[in-house]
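#onboarding

Welcome to the new folks! Below is a worked example of what a typical request in this channel looks like: someone posts a single protein sequence, and someone else replies with the predicted structure as tokens. Don't worry about understanding the tokens yet, we'll cover that in week two.

Example request:
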Amino acid sequence: MSDTAPLIYFVYGIPQSGRREIIFDLIEGGIPTSEPVLYFRPQGESPSPFDQQIEALSNVSVVEWSLKDSKISHGKISAAPQKIIFLAPGTSDPADCAEALKQWSEHNQCRIARIFTVLHCQFLKDRPEARAWFDACIHFSDIVLLNRREEAGNKWVKDFEDDYKKTRNPARFVFVKKGRVANPAEVLDPEARRVSLYFDELIPIEEDEFEDEHQPDDLKPDKYIERLESGQRAKPIPAIEKFYGQSMKLTEI
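Example response:
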């Protein structure tokens, strides 16, 4: 793929995790105003005060998109962007998003630069049973943006990060403070650091060079993407909505 291909950034995270505040910070602080940015905002999301701030940036064009049957659909695009930022629907399945993103990027000849997970630390501390959903997001992510840390506490945050270090997860864990990261340009650096090889371009090999049970990891189907003969995922991801509880208002702050 050409080095001049538009770069895609994809953002996972639940409502109330500060996703759009962080996106605003990354664009404003990490992308020169001379570089056109296309921002894909998911349909049906609750309004955020940062919607207008993102849209007001001089180099940003906004298009609404939706996810259906692991495919991306969106409105008409008139911009010629250098950077593309997708915000995942807050209640979406991470594997469906990954599959749709790969198809869209290949069809439009764009390069996936980095994938982010915005982690609502307090939410996960209070609802540890939701860990499987976040594990799936982080599996595809290069950067984990640790937000809403105050009430979770330093010990919980450190233990959470250490869990991934023990498994040698290459993703970077970055603190968010008051909606900002210390170095937006560094966070946007398109160096791949994700566990998943699903988005990588693999070199073709002879079909029978490896027996199935001895395939190296980079030739095996991604564990979250793989489907059974029935069409169901081999490793289904629990729906995040089931962990919200009645008291959680799904509005962005």
